[in-house]
Amino acid sequence: MDADAQSTSTSTTATSRAVDLTAVPAIPGAPKPDAVIVGDKITRKFGGLTAVDVDHIEIQRGVITALIGPNGAGKTTLFNLLTGFDVPDSGTWSLNGGSLQGVASYKVARRGMVRTFQLTKVLAKLTVLDNMLLGATGQRGEKLLSALFAFRWRGQEEENAARAHELLTRFKLDAKRDDFAGSLSGGQRKLLEMARALMVDPELIMLDEPMAGVNPALKQSLLEHVKSLRDEGRTVLFVEHDMDMVRDISDWVIVMAQGKIVAEGTPQAVMQDPAVIDAYLGAHHDTDLREMDEAALEAEAQAELEAQADGKATP
Amino acid sequence: MTTTPQQRTAPAVQAARPHPQAITSLVLGVAGLTLTAGITSPFAWWKGQQALAAIKDAPDQYRGRALAQIGRVLGILGTVLLVVWLVLGFATDVLPVDVGQVFKTALNQALGPNAIVYALAAIGLNIHFGYTGLLNFGQAGFMAVGAYGLAVSVVILETPFWLGIVAALVAPVVLALVLGFPTLRLRADYLAIATIATAEILRLAFGSVELKDAFGGSNGLTGYASAYQDLNPYGGPLDLGFVEFSQRDLWSVTVGWTLVGLSLLLVWGLMRSPWGRVLRSIREDEDAVRSLGKNVFAYKMQALILGGVFGGLAGLFLALKQASVVPADYSTNITFFAYTALLIGGAARVLGPLAGAVIFWFLIAGLGSFFGQATSGPDPLMPTFIMDDTQASLVRFIVTGLGLMLLMIFRPQGIFGDRREIAIDGR
Amino acid sequence: MLQRLLTLLALLMVLLFPVAAAHAGGESESPAPSPSSEPAPRPDGPYVTVRLVDKDNDDAPVAGVTLTVVSEAGEEIASAPTDADGRIIVPIPALGVYTVTLDEATLPDGIELSSSVESEIEVRAILDGANGGLFPIGTQEVTTVSFAERFVTSLTSGIKFGLIVALAALGLSLIFGTTGLTNFAHGELITFGAIMTYVFNRGLGLPVILAGAAAVLVSALFGWVQERGLWRPLRKRGTGLIAMMIVSIGFALLLRNVYQYTIGSSRKSLSQYVSQARTDYGPISLADKELAIIVIASVTIVIACVLLLKTRLGKAMRAVSDNPALSASSGMRVDGVIASVWILGTALTGLSGVLLAINSQVNFLMGFKLLLLVFAAVTLGGLGTIWGALFGSMVIGIMVEVGPLFGVPSSIKEVGALVVLILVLLIRPQGILGRRERIG
Amino acid sequence: GDGDTTEPSAGESTDSSEPSESSAPAETGDGVLTFGSLLPETGSLAFLGPPEFAGVDLAVQEINEAGGVNGEDVVHVRGDSGDADSGIAPAETDELLAAGSDVIVGAASSGVSLTVIDAIQAAGVVMFSPANTSTAFDEPPYDSPDLYFRTAPSDILQGAVMANLLIEDGRSNVAILARQDAYGETLAEQVAMNLENAGSSVATTVFYGENAQSFDSQVDEIAAAGGDSLVLIGFEETATIVPQLITAGAGPQDIPTYFVDGNTADYSEGGSTPLPAGVLEGTKGTIPGADTGGEFQERLLGLNPDLDSFAYAAESYDTVIVSALAAVAAGADDGESVGAAIVDVTIGGEKCTTFADCVALLDDGADIDYDGVSGPIELGELGSPTAASIGIYEYKADNTIEAVDYISGQI
Amino acid sequence: MSESTTTTPEREAHLAAAGDAVLRADALIGGYLPGVDILNGADLYCNKGELVGIIGPNGAGKSTLLKALFGLVKVRTGTVVLDGEDITNMRADELVTKGIGFVPQSNNVFPSLTIEENLEMGCYQTPQKFPERFAFVTDIFPRLGERRKQRAGSLSGGERQMVAMGRALMMAPSVLLLDEPSAGLSPVLQDEVFVQTRNINRAGVSVIMVEQNARRCLQICDRGYVLDHGRNAYTGTGQSLGSDPKVIQLYLGTLGAS
Ligand SMILES: Nc1ncnc2c1ncn2[C@@H]1O[C@H](COP(=O)(O)OP(=O)(O)OP(=O)(O)O)[C@@H](O)[C@H]1O
Ligand SMILES: Nc1ncnc2c1ncn2[C@@H]1O[C@H](COP(=O)(O)OP(=O)(O)OP(=O)(O)O)[C@@H](O)[C@H]1O
Ligand SMILES: CC(C)C[C@H](N)C(=O)O
Ligand SMILES: [Mg+2]
Ligand SMILES: [Mg+2]
């Protein structure tokens, strides 16, 4: 049944692409027409360090939102907070209007919000296929009582396996299907992590640097897949340092720095925002390094770092 | 300057079929142990070895690793038996040791009630540790509550026998719940200490003078097992030549191996299911499983309870076959030995606990008997300045310790385990 | 948390000081068995005998007090005054229960039965000869010790025990912290230190101090040999940690039985310092050997900790524990680091065995019995952290010895410590000084 | 047991037990009277193993020299009972049973015996302990006539002797430190009860666990209780406790201390567990058993010249002789028949003191009353001696013991 | 030494150019599990002062190749030669003594050590150089200086990567092996890493770097290898590879190439 959902939806939903974000003001914490996630005053401190201090955040349904920002800006921590893997010091947030405060991480996932991990978490001594199958939801065979009776879950299992195989092929992991996941290379783990999250068939998928370490050619083909997810009506939120990817697929970009949201907007707009360029992109990130004057580049990096340091001094 | 990357040949997955030699090996192996008195066993060993190699080389084409493995193990066992039988003939004349007796003692224990206790306890540990990764070092505690569940109900509370059995099965569930709620969020090594501590607390409490009225102090409790013996349908002992059981043991062995068989069936059924997959995933990385929407805690609790019930069952069976419940029987050592049995067989393998328990007792009893004989009598095989009869009873533990070490060194995956799995995790 | 605990302890010490000091002088004299001056003739068959002595008056016999002996059937057997020795001897016709009544009116002036004592007792005569009874006279002088004083004594014992545990825990923690090995043979390493002391002392005739020092050296050597001969080859084969843990269980079984094989199962005592009386140091009274144990253990622990903090070894250890491959990539000789840790760890553990041998005795099971407490200590503090091991050991040591004062049944006093362990893990699943891991 | 009702001459009962002639060491009742000894080779009572084994071996030797039982030599299979802590007794028992034991001699420790008693009885094998003194064996569920017997008197007697000894010595406030097991608990209880009835008070009773690693808190508790004497009921751990008592100011030289059968051992320089000379001087201890006399000890030394203790050797010897006599009387060697005849050969009838003499009497059709080396051995209904002697020993300056008195009594 | 592999003209041409390379690997065959080869005869050389880039699909064996050079993966046949000395399967810490530095792709920090201690481990063999090198590294990554007492295990992904890179820079090696040093870093820091790598290289350090940021990698490297299925698929100068349409189609993709 789950497998059907995917194949049918591809055909039906070219409509959701229509979500128009042009009307949304490009200010931090901008309200969205149809927000799937709404968060308020979320803070998380580690000792003296405020890792996350988000005043207001909304994620639009049915689009691809990119979350970018310098290293240590608090992106992963925000993911952890939203998905119940970490507990904030304060704040409220909700998914589809339902509060997620104090909701256990697995329940968050069950409500349709699934995340991947920046440092991959593969199940090393399970095969790649088993890793995938674990992702499937609503499995009858996962209940202790029906697990004993194979006829109750056989059919479902086969459907899931077919779907898993499809995804694996797409992620170029099909040849590794029966290998232990622990024997995958760094990039393959990233791929598996993402493919497994897709097995959950989530409404909102949160990817933490999904393409770091993925080969460019493969990345390109995967981006198509991510777009198709959106076209199926799903919401995608991802963290990425790869600007090509951000530019190519995101509909909306949120910029974080030092725990705060400092800018929002369409990719084009954000990438031209001088503040973002200064703090994050660097003026020459599109230039060929061979042609570039090193001194200039270094000065620029220095400038960014100083800006960060200043920001830290006055929190 | 350029070479084209060559395409990987991905073989059709459906083509995988059991390797024919695996089946041959299994058949020969079984035959070796039953019909042919060991003659076919070396062939079973050989075929099994071949099949394993073939399957390893082409894992895509062949299935049946388990079959080949079993065939091979049976083959090895049968070959050993064969050699022993051959050696017996003249050795008994040469050595002042009755090798036949040694062998018989060993086999008696390997197939007797003690092995059943360990097999059941190890089945429980297999669920805890092998599949779910819960490092439960308190299996002795589960066994104790199982045994005391029966004894206390029948002796102290004077309930009928069958209610005692029910109590013995409910008690481990309660213990699992009480223990699980606080400790299941602990990291594996902390959990190990917490469970070991709980088991010791239970043992000490059961044996304490202060609670003597409820648990009988360190004398323990007796006088509950007659109902069990009354059910004994056997009229006399059984002597098959290579093993023999008294009338009592025969009944215990029947009940016990039936329980073990049913338990293994249950474990097999569960572990091939998606439920089992979730458990194995939890063993690898809890957070990943959580992120996929599984209630990790609930699964761990189910595993703890299920494994605990098997532990309780082991305790219950021990209590029944031994007809006494004594706190000293439930010391940490028994947990260690159950782990030993599990790992000899291979963790996370359905048949691991069974094979392990049988081999463990075979060694312990065989060595004990051999050295016992070698040091006793007017003209012992071992000169007394090397080993006297007291020391002889230690040698089996020394050898067991050594054996366990060697096993882990040369075959860390146990008899049924998968070498590749072990190789996966570098630290 | 730690601070508050320490303050509390300090406060208690201060409070208890005067109380304990006050008592320090009063020692109970030891009454020697009192031989009857002039034994009265004893009959051949069974008889009931009662002797009266005045506790207030240096156990002087009390003569002329009338005692009546009545049989179970109510028949009076005899009624007679005590003789010059304060005794009556009444032959009885048959074995059974006899009631003896003292006529209080016949007590000499100024002499009274101890309060709380009845004037009637029951003698169960089942012996063929004397079946004795007793009426305590005078104030029963029982020198019981105040709670505060007992607390101080227990606390001292606890600290001593805790320090011994701490040495072993430190050794365990070092090895665990570096190699990740949960070493179930650690108890046997404690035993090793003790047995070596015994061997050097009784076997080679060295004085205990020298024997102990030699034992520590041999322990260190044993650690190195183990590492070279067993653990390193295992690591080279890529053996997993669980498998290594099982190897350690097997190794423990092996060692334990080899010990028993060689020295036997009985307890062995050293040739010196076995029985030492205590001297008073302010509120605390300690025997010389106890003082030595406390001092040696503390000094060693301090030295070891400084060593680990000040030298590269300490960091290298943690680095190796985190990631051996990366450590090697940083230019560390991983095997060398691990070997040093084994040497240091087993030396510390061996010392703990030496001190335990001096404190109690040598037995092949001594370390095994201590193992669970050592594990508990290491866990309580937080696995793999050095301060955690020390802190945990002190908590465990003190809990074990002080617990009985607060109602823990002393036959199962270890339970108290284990319960504390579990409670602590409830509140801090990572141990008292452990750290949580970051997710994601 | 119900030995009184069964005629000893009921030789025909052999047919019912149908020994399978051919199969070698199989079931109980195969024609060969097999003794399995379940005695401590290891563990905390290991120091009692040698004399006990020597006793069994001596008896077996003498029986076979006298022509065996029912025409066959008797056989002795050794087993190690370990201690309750090592828990090897049950498995060892299975092995002894598998070896076709008809009578199991043992165990020494009451705690160990309780772990195997049901299994042995259920196998229809006699369990005959030379050293169990716990009262537990005369209480439910072991109070019914069954297959359990012992030659050591229950601690009711040792408790009374000990209490009496204390009172005779003028102790009026006694502290008790006891090992927490079947033996320690019941003996402590008996001593305390007898003391209190007789007018003395008990300052405190402290138990320590068999596994205890540190005894500090218990020792402190004893030292703090202020008793005028101490009864120390334990096994081998005594060697650790005594020095700690001395350190705590409550050693035998500070507070008169009394030992019991579990720890009245040789603590001299030559023994296995030496204590410094002089620390035990004057300490008294009780061990069940009559004066065995030099001649018997000579015979034991002939078998095992290394013996340094003779505790329970006589009792062990007697268990074997009594069982053998019972087998002769019953004309069968299966456990049930032997068990049924045991009580009868120890009471009522013509007195005899050696196996050969007794067999001769039995052959004449007489009813016999065997009087053993360890005492008159009058087994009561419960299979325990009803009359016995308890030896009182005192430590000399070199920590060896010397018998000062033997007191006999009835239970 | 290379008899086991088929000799193709390309391969011969490639090897002929090797000349007196500092580090040279010939026909490496090896892997993690017995019987499973990941490297199927990869060749590689790096001349003195050269910056060599390796790219290729996921699972091609790039990391494995670096580990094999560094003695962390068993080389079954083939040799690794450093300055004329055979260093095949040599212990990692000896290689460090010989001047090779290595930054692994994953698990590249010591989580329970602080940042400062992590960097200290970088110059484990030469502790006296610590202050000077530390200043150098914190100059490049000031964040590491600010947070020197933070445990590396609690760092964000990018911060970890800085620590990993920093540790290698502490070593001052003569040959540096980098496995995806830019992964997880913000764009500006990625650029910084590439520039620094080039600077180090220009200062005379031979560098071999594996990268998935292929565009940047090929921009700065002197020579590049494309690895696939454990053997060299293409080799050439950075520029020629970056513009080879086949390479682009198979490995680089067109995204962002603009
Ligand atoms: N458990 C922790 N203890 C202390 N500091 C922490 C902890 N977790 C995160 N931090 C700090 O909080 C800040 C935010 O971390 P986070 O992982 O959210 O960054 P990020 O935006 O995901 O960065 P990157 O792009 O590098 O992944 C970092 O500076 C990090 O060092
Ligand atoms: N520890 C391991 N055990 C077994 N096989 C492994 C192990 N690590 C990697 N492999 C296998 O080796 C092959 C090459 O892995 P490697 O890590 O070298 O790839 P890579 O080229 O670095 O890829 P990526 O770009 O994704 O990092 C992969 O197929 C992988 O499955
Ligand atoms: C051998 C004896 C010390 C045994 C002791 N009498 C007991 O019953 O446990
Ligand atoms: Mg991050
Ligand atoms: Mg890689």
From TrEMBL, chain A:
Keywords: ATP-binding, Nucleotide-binding, Transport. One of its GO terms (molecular function) is ATP binding. It comes from the Bacteria. Residues 37-283 form the ABC transporter domain. It holds the Pfam family ABC_tran. GO terms for cellular component: plasma membrane. InterPro entries: AAA+_ATPase, ABC_AA/LPS_Transport, ABC_transporter-like_ATP-bd, ABC_transporter-like_CS, BCA_ABC_TP_C, P-loop_NTPase. Gene3D superfamilies: P-loop containing nucleotide triphosphate hydrolases (3.40.50.300). Coiled coil: none annotated. This is Branched-chain amino acid transport system ATP-binding protein. The lineage of its organism: Bacteria, Bacillati, Actinomycetota, Actinomycetes, Propionibacteriales.
TrEMBL record, chain B:
The chain crosses the membrane at residues 67-90, 110-127, 134-156, 162-181, 188-206, 250-271, 303-324, 330-347, 354-372, 392-410. The lineage of its organism: Bacteria, Bacillati, Actinomycetota, Actinomycetes, Propionibacteriales. PANTHER family: HIGH-AFFINITY BRANCHED-CHAIN AMINO ACID TRANSPORT PROTEIN BRAE (PTHR30482:SF10), HIGH-AFFINITY BRANCHED-CHAIN AMINO ACID TRANSPORT SYSTEM PERMEASE (PTHR30482). It is a multi-pass membrane protein. It is found in: Cell membrane. One of its GO terms (molecular function) is branched-chain amino acid transmembrane transporter activity. This is Branched-chain amino acid transport system permease protein. Keywords: Cell membrane, Membrane, Transmembrane, Transmembrane helix. One of its GO terms (cellular component) is plasma membrane. Residues 22-84 form the DUF4190 domain.
From TrEMBL, chain C:
One of its GO terms (molecular function) is transmembrane transporter activity. Residues 1-24 form the signal peptide. It is found in: Cell membrane. Residues 25-45 are annotated as: Disordered. GO terms for cellular component: plasma membrane. Residues 32-44 have a biased composition (Pro residues). The chain crosses the membrane at residues 161-184, 204-226, 238-259, 291-309, 337-358, 370-400, 406-427. It is a multi-pass membrane protein. InterPro entries: ABC_transp_permease, BCAA_transport_permease, Ig-like_fold. Its main location: membrane. Belongs to the binding-protein-dependent transport system permease family. LivHM subfamily. This is Branched-chain amino acid transport system permease protein. It comes from Nocardioides psychrotolerans.
From TrEMBL, chain E:
Coiled coil: none annotated. InterPro entries: AAA+_ATPase, ABC_transporter-like_ATP-bd, ABC_transporter-like_CS, BCAA_Transport_ATP-bd_LivF, P-loop_NTPase. Residues 23-254 form the ABC transporter domain. The keyword Transport applies. PROSITE patterns: ABC_TRANSPORTER_1, ABC_TRANSPORTER_2. One of its GO terms (molecular function) is ATP hydrolysis activity. Keywords: Amino-acid transport, ATP-binding, Nucleotide-binding, Transport. Pfam families: ABC_tran. One of its GO terms (biological process) is L-amino acid transport. Belongs to the ABC transporter superfamily. This is Branched-chain amino acid transport system ATP-binding protein.
